[in-house]
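Deviations from the work plan: none for this task. Representative record:
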Amino acid sequence: MHAQQVAIGQTDPSAFGFQSWTGLSDSYQQIKVLGGQETVFYEGDESAYVYEVLEGVVCCYRLLSDGRRQVLAFSFPGDLIGLVQSETHGFNAEALKAARIRRIPRNTLLQTAMERPEIGRKLLEFATSELAVMQDRFVMLGRKSALEKVASFLLAMARSHLEKQCEPISFDLPMKRVDIADYLGLTFETVSRAFTKLRRMQAIELPQTQKVVLLDVALLKDLAENESGWN
Amino acid sequence: MHAQQVAIGQTDPSAFGFQSWTGLSDSYQQIKVLGGQETVFYEGDESAYVYEVLEGVVCCYRLLSDGRRQVLAFSFPGDLIGLVQSETHGFNAEALKAARIRRIPRNTLLQTAMERPEIGRKLLEFATSELAVMQDRFVMLGRKSALEKVASFLLAMARSHLEKQCEPISFDLPMKRVDIADYLGLTFETVSRAFTKLRRMQAIELPQTQKVVLLDVALLKDLAENESGWN
DNA sequence: CGACGGGTTGAAGTAAATCAATAGGGGTGG
DNA sequence: CCACCCCTATTGATTTACTTCAACCCGTCG
């Protein structure tokens, strides 16, 4: 894991530019460095802070009493976590790998949003675009087959790469199979089988378990919405 | 359907109080009366307006190319529909029964939010509480059994009644079985069987197909999260 | 080396989908 | 008012996609 070397701990511009207006960015205690598997907050914790991912990937999930788990989101740099009305967090948030995270007092954030309309607007934009993303995921969770889910997932993970690169598109999956499964509402065995199937179809390659190469994006897009007649 | 008689067409206070600050409420053309099955907007329509449900129930859904359908939300009076960043709507919205709906130009709304912080705050609150509700639904769609889904659904539909009344709690389901199924990621047959099972367990009664009586809320709550050892 | 965690693959079991028949309820037209 | 139809819902029989259980592989680390 060489990614951990990258500049963890130094200040940097955030996608939201919060550091410039909370007036707190220069005090280091607001930025936290987490190791892999480390928890940002637990379900039920007081939601006094909102967190911004600066680096790394954070997995937000909820557990049922019998141990079933649903991953609600993978949060990437620029994403906000824990922006809620309620007094406590409704899910657990933990870093998948080493991560750098900015902690913003919720009241400060909301107060600033009230005072500076363009910030309020940004927050609202973030929230509404989250809503739109979540709507896509409802379709995926409720109505897609295992293969369609995995194909959709890979395309979503590759989105940022899709814009820049052309095929083949190669990137790392920061999460384990079981995390993907709990995100897609499947078992990890089913996810594994879907990967194998996609490999057999020449849609992807898996040079290492967490490394993916998309060979045929068009085919993946097709599979993501349709699950047409292969097998 | 006697509910249709109620005051459709007259002005009234909205949960958001938009009529007071858009300065448009007194012009009737901003309020639309829809019959059952009538469409508010289609997926792909320009998202120039945001809609507030004043009365009735609106079903928001998306269709896949092969006809599969996922209901994204049932919107009740006080709910906002179509608050998005993108230039087009990402889903269809149609009234389940006769409904009264306020149409608000999106730019007006966003402009007002910028000018009046307390309105911006309200919008943000609406969006974040939507996010919280959607997180619950991820758990339901991804990790719950058919019976658990239906039990959760009934409790959610009864939420407003649960606060006021005590058992037995009786109310009408404004949607058909197939709508419930497409909301829960099931088939309508499975939903029907789940209703029957709940009836056999004495958890509910179904005097008519769209009328529900909750006999044992504790049992339903148990089933909603656990699916403990019955059958 | 051996143990351990994560991943893949195979075989068997099961919850829900699909296919199919029947029943009820509401509206229309005779 | 009844007869018919259409739409919705229920119930049963069968199929199937995914889960569960289990074996095995492979790389890492003490």
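Chain B is about 40% helix and 25% strand.
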